[in-house]
Design brief:
Layout lengths: L1 E8 L5 H4 L9 H9 L4 E6 L3 E8 L6 H12 L10 E4 L1 H12 L10 H16 L4 H20 L9 H13 L6 E5 L3 H12 L4 E5 L3 H11 L2 E2 L5 H7 L2 E4 L10 H9 L6 E5 L16 E5 L3 H4 L1 H8 L2 H46 L7 H27 L5 H10 L9
Parallel strand pairs: 5-6, 5-8, 6-7, 8-9, 9-10
Antiparallel strand pairs: 1-3, 1-4, 2-3
Helix pairs in contact: 2-3, 4-6, 4-14, 5-6, 6-14, 7-8, 10-11, 14-15, 14-16
Length: about 425
């Protein structure tokens, strides 16, 4: 059994490339269904910073280009030439997921949102029926690693999450933000977290809009904000000082002409646009408009650097937690692979022992007590003969190469066992 992954992340590609492969809630079930047709187990972790496909199977993931092509097909887009995907297998794939869950592969080291996203990826694969024993163990282990990293170290202590970074960015751009007007164009979790951080930082006026009016009202009630019509978007942007977007729209929600029109009437009043969405909600060309400050998900990385070094001091402890978990998972996975071979070997030896006793004992004049002694002796003999081979099979590392040889030597894959 092998764990493999194919992925793309903020470390390998800018948001302009990543957005081509980001799977929304409506696309994820189809992706899992398609993957489930090919692999024994499959899960997809898709966030604003990464899209990673995890599979478990005897031969791993195979040609990673097939997975990339499948993602492009589901997105309804032509394949992106030279898209910088990476492929990992075995311990490297396990280690990568554990590092992701611990927050040390994140754009903002130690951020807490990723652990919930790992849980959501596991839940989605469970609902889709694409989980397997190995993949379930992998994700449960990853979640435990994430919890340990945050409870046993200070990796998450210093506030440098996307939402807290947005607050710092607002203050750096506008100065005092208690009098600022915030417009949230979303009812998604990322926009909700950022809006809540701004609210907790003293913003008094907040409005929420969404194509789904009911969703807008729900989020507005949760934030203590005002729900406004999506059809009135341009006017609402014109009244705002800070606009946060985090929708699942495949097209730009705010484009350059809209921003240019409203900025012509604002004079020197700046406008801060924070685009957390992948694909992006705001046309990058709006940066060309005077007075506009636009930050997409990649742009937030630079703002977060102030506290990154503080979190980096915790990395050695987190890495130790990860490596311990990788070793434990490797031992468990090896045991999972060896158990059928050990069971088959024992069953075959026991069948031979019983057959020989059945053939030999009836020809003797042994007493019942002597027969029991012979049966006990033969059972002990088989146990001692198999002890060394089974112990070798159960060891990691070198033991792995003996599994296939054992099955071949003893004919364990042969239906007759002869």
């Amino acid at each position: 059994m092998q764990i493999s992954l194919v992925g793309i992340s903020h470390k390998t590609a800018p948001v302009a490339v990543r957005e081509h492969f980001a799977l929304g809630a409506a696309e994820l079930p189809l992706a899992l269904a398609r993957l489930g047709e090919r692999y024994a187990g499959a899960a997809v972790l898709s966030t604003c910073n990464r899209t990673e496909v995890y599979v478990a199977g005897p031969r791993g993931i195979g040609d990673p280009r097939a997975v990339v092509a499948l993602l492009s097909e589901i997105k309804g887009e032509p394949p992106v030439e030279g898209a910088p995907f990476f492929a990992l297998s075995g311990k490297e794939a396990t280690r990568h997921l554990f590092r992701v869950a611990a927050g040390i592969e994140s754009m903002v080291i130690g951020e807490s949102e990723i652990l919930g996203q790992v849980r959501a990826a596991f839940a989605a694969s469970t609902v889709a029926g694409t989980q397997s024993v190995a993949l379930s163990k992998l994700f449960h282990s990853a979640i435990r690693v994430g919890r340990r990293a945050r409870s046993q170290t200070h990796i998450g202590r210093y506030a440098v999450s996307v939402s807290s970074t947005a607050v710092s960015l607002a203050r750096a751009t506008l100065g005092a933000i208690d009098g600022a007007v915030v417009l949230v164009v979303s009812a998604g979790e990322a926009g909700k977290l950022t809006a809540r951080s701004l609210r907790e930082s003293g913003v008094a006026t907040m409005r929420v809009t969404n194509r789904n009016a009911e969703r807008a009202r729900e989020l507005a009630a949760d934030l203590g904000a005002e729900a406004v019509p999506f059809d009135d978007l341009e006017a609402q942007v014109a009244r705002a000082d800070i606009v946060i977007t985090s929708t699942a729209s495949p097209q730009f929600v705010i484009d350059r002409p809209l921003v240019a029109r409203l900025m012509a009437a604002r004079r020197t009043r700046p406008l801060l646009l924070i685009d957390i969405a992948v694909p992006r909600d705001i046309d990058p060309a709006v940066r060309e408009v005077a007075g506009v400050h636009l930050y997409d998900i990649d742009g937030l990385q630079g703002i977060a650097q102030a506290n990154v070094n503080l979190r980096r001091k915790e990395l050695a402890q987190v890495e130790a937690i990860v490596e311990d978990a990788v070793a434990r998972f490797g031992d468990w996975l090896h045991t999972l692979e060896v158990v059928p071979t050990v069971s088959a070997l024992r069953a075959q030896a026991e069948a031979v022992r019983l057959a020989e006793l059945e053939r030999t004992l009836p020809k003797t004049k042994m007493s019942a007590a002597d027969r029991r002694r012979v049966e006990a002796m033969t059972a002990a003999l088989v146990k001692k003969l198999l002890h060394r081979p089974i112990a070798t099979l159960k060891t990691g590392g070198e033991g792995e190469r003996y599994v296939e040889a054992t099955r071949a030597l003893f004919g364990l894959d042969d239906e007759t066992g002869e």
